[in-house]
Design goal:
- By secondary structure, this protein is an alpha+beta fold.
- Helix content is 53%, strand content 16%.
- The protein contains five helices and four strands.
- It has a four-stranded mixed sheet, sandwiched between helices.
- It is globular, with a radius of gyration of 12 Å.
- The protein starts with a helix and ends with a helix.
Length: 101
């Protein structure tokens, strides 16, 4: 199975387990409350969103990974397009990190 399919299906699984939060405001809130274990950010996010999310991640020491585009990220969780999602489960976060490295 290709790397891309692996992480997207794992993200879908995490989503069905209700361990995924999507949407900029909600993700930033999760980071602030230190519930987010990993943040996935699409490379086609606006400069403003990119800076806001990466700065928050660095400040609260939450790891983040960049993924190809918003449509791939959205599709993985069964939504239209998503620019940023947070995974708030350590197990899913650890596995996703290894798949995205």
């Amino acid at each position: 199975m290709k790397q891309q399919q692996q992480w997207t299906s794992l993200l879908g699984l995490a989503n069905r387990a209700r361990k995924v939060i999507s949407g900029e405001e909600l993700v930033v809130k999760e980071i602030r409350q230190q519930k987010a274990k990993l943040v996935l950010l699409s490379q086609d996010a606006s400069a403003n969103t990119m800076k806001k999310v990466t700065d928050k991640c660095k400040f609260y020491q939450v790891p983040f990974k960049l993924v190809e585009d918003r449509y791939l990220l959205g599709q993985a969780i069964g939504k239209e397009a998503r620019v940023v999602v947070a995974i708030n489960d350590a197990g899913f976060a650890a596995k996703l990190k290894t798949l995205l490295d």
